[in-house]
Amino acid sequence: MTPTSRRGFLINAAASALTIESAVAIAGGEGKPLSGPAFDEQRTPVPLPFDPKNLNGLSAKLMQSHWENNYGGAVKALNTIRSRLTLALNDASTPAYVYTGLKREQLLRTGSVVLHEYYFGNLGGSGKAGSEVRTKVAASFGTFDAWESEFRKIGQGLGGGSGWVVLGYNIHTQQVENYWMWDHMHGPAATMPLLVMDMYENAYAIDYGASAKDYIEAFLKNLQWAEVERRLGRAQKADTALRG
Amino acid sequence: MTPTSRRGFLINAAASALTIESAVAIAGGEGKPLSGPAFDEQRTPVPLPFDPKNLNGLSAKLMQSHWENNYGGAVKALNTIRSRLTLALNDASTPAYVYTGLKREQLLRTGSVVLHEYYFGNLGGSGKAGSEVRTKVAASFGTFDAWESEFRKIGQGLGGGSGWVVLGYNIHTQQVENYWMWDHMHGPAATMPLLVMDMYENAYAIDYGASAKDYIEAFLKNLQWAEVERRLGRAQKADTALRG
Amino acid sequence: MTPTSRRGFLINAAASALTIESAVAIAGGEGKPLSGPAFDEQRTPVPLPFDPKNLNGLSAKLMQSHWENNYGGAVKALNTIRSRLTLALNDASTPAYVYTGLKREQLLRTGSVVLHEYYFGNLGGSGKAGSEVRTKVAASFGTFDAWESEFRKIGQGLGGGSGWVVLGYNIHTQQVENYWMWDHMHGPAATMPLLVMDMYENAYAIDYGASAKDYIEAFLKNLQWAEVERRLGRAQKADTALRG
Amino acid sequence: MTPTSRRGFLINAAASALTIESAVAIAGGEGKPLSGPAFDEQRTPVPLPFDPKNLNGLSAKLMQSHWENNYGGAVKALNTIRSRLTLALNDASTPAYVYTGLKREQLLRTGSVVLHEYYFGNLGGSGKAGSEVRTKVAASFGTFDAWESEFRKIGQGLGGGSGWVVLGYNIHTQQVENYWMWDHMHGPAATMPLLVMDMYENAYAIDYGASAKDYIEAFLKNLQWAEVERRLGRAQKADTALRG
Q1: Is residue B166 situated within a structural domain?
Q2: DSSP 3-state assignment of B38?
Q3: How far apart are the CA of C242 and the nearest CA of chain D, in angstroms?
Q4: Which of A183, C19, C178, D240 is the most interior residue, by most CB within 10 Å?
Q5: Which residue of B has its CA nearest to D105?
Q6: What is the DSSP letter of B45?
Q7: Is B202–D201 a contact, with Cβ atoms under 8 angstroms apart?
Q8: Structure pTM?
Q9: Number of folded domains in chain B?
Q10: A48: Cβ–Cβ under 8 A, 6 or more apart, which residues?
């Protein structure tokens, strides 16, 4: 380490969870600080793919706060957690159950970041599903209405709490299904999200207070079905690649 | 039952999971039962891809019980839950928060089924990672040892409880990472499992009692790295298809 | 429905929440409906113990919505769940993992009902803690400020999600501690709540949007410390009775 | 600080989560380390209240491992977490969401410690409930058998995973109920445990493998009903004190 990078490292270390001994050891070059994308990756927020002023029944104030505070906050927290994980893993005195406390936070923030990007990505549309995507959804649910009826019901069941409703393609079982997810950490194994609805109260309380029902209505009115169709097409392409 | 108490009971029953009225209506053909794979799919267990007698330090008794009772039980429960979801959704009197109770069970059992299939799928090997897969893992974690050190630590932190450790490829963030998962319902959004270790106690207690550490050792000795490499290759192929 | 498909459907239905057979059996008087407070209890909402117009920095609109929709909704849901539990337990075809799905909902709603009653019960005050209660809190935390500092930090950590912060007296360990609780179902074993802060977003988003920090400030300004002191006194009396 | 105690403090600090700056500041006397039972309490394990060789259908090996590894491990982890919480709270650079990761671990370990003490405390008996306790249980559940039927069903539903079944007295609602608890962190608000059954797999896998059903049978055969009755009596005494 050059003196400059060493100083930078110490400043960085000062914000993190490590013991005196290990910090000194690492700074002194005896330790080998972990590196690589799994430890170093620092993410930046993806801008909203639509003008928040143009949504129908979802205010710019709500969208801006949701994007900035909840999604933006998750990006920032994920970056911080990643630094702390690196230092905690480098420190042999970290008990495994303290380390996994940080890994839980990483899982939570990863879920929040990824699901929010899918969520904002499927907003900004007219809510009108083209006949092709309707047919594809119906292939799994019998009818398009059966899909919508279940999707809404799951959303309602999450009202007043937190969670996500996700129409997903399960790469392993090759099924298209609606999933109930209790918080950012929940999610079906091996699944690509196709259509994502945020049911955390920060997704609607500013506009709709406790009325999850009215929010679900508004969400569906602003759905960008072209994006859902694109994701479904990509899932099918990926699936072909996987089976081929 | 006196006629009076019977009447009271019927009124009470009218508020229940499948009401008599709706049961009769459905049975009489007035309801339109939901259909399609999302509602009908019935799964059968995938056989063990190795002879359980041939593992090194993991007994055939443990493997058989794990496969039959825990994985097999999950397949059966998932099938049952799917039937009940269909009937509950068909019944307009089902409160959303009762419906989501069943969706939670579906998420739990889906996680169990899918993750167990990945888990058994990556056992039966020699535990020796080829140089190509080592290099690929090192590309994300700096060194192969750094990966292993974190993977083990997460496993240790889950000892005495339940959960999974998953090395996964996140389709959205394009990262290869180790994830901590508290139970079958937890999982990172948009992630393809590459290497899966079961930390539920039923994965080891028969052989190792409370010693999660010895189990992790045994698990790693029986890892089928060729399968992990195959999954990594497929993930890269799918990724190319997705970006293309 | 053709006779054949109807027969198929009936076979399918036989695996469901309340089967036709059992519904008819119960309706016909052959079943013995469960009774007793554990199965029958129907709860009514407790009115707000203060005039919501008189709070300082927490609007009447927020309080009314919180009380009516979130607390009131939980009371209603708990009553419904209790009826469904009774019927599900009476029906021998209910799988244990479907039954526990309803028990989970009971735990969730019980937590919501009980904690909300403690929460509203410790609001409506001046936020000024008398010297006696300060001394008692300091006896556990070294200083009153140390308590407040931890209490606020836990609240902050729950911002943007859901959960509760509870200062509680643990009957078993005889400790007074602050607890982090992730949702209505979380809670320390054997603990009497002394001071309860709701961190679900429905407790503040209407007034403060995403700013958990400002809400915590407002909450503390409206704390009814006399009630906290009364609860502490009662806990001590109960403790004496328990040890005597 | 004397040089000796300062050295002790540094050694202690070396095992914990703090920054170089704050450790030095604290060691140098500039910081004010938090103290008081909420931060300092160190617990020691309570011995088994029965001879593990004398149980009927639960082996001494299982009991010893359960007591030593799972319960004993929780006591140790709780003590460690408490030290780390103190240092993390003292360090202003600790993000709230890192702090609450530690508070989660504290909740988890507190639940484990307390529930295990109740669990071992109600074992070592003949499984025969006296007529007085049967009558008291029946007062809540209609019949004693209805209680047992629900208690067993909840246990079955937790088979293959983790969790607790608790017959508890809710101080706030004044109800005696069976509760489903998913892990050590789950629990009904304001409830005194009366009868506690551990459904973590470490409570039975050594003896019964995957057969939760056989374990429940064995557990009930070894129940110490006199202790349950004593707890019920104490709960009633505490209740009278609380209402008086």
Answers
A1: yes
A2: helix
A3: 6
A4: C178
A5: B157
A6: P
A7: yes
A8: 0.90
A9: 1
A10: A63, A67, A120
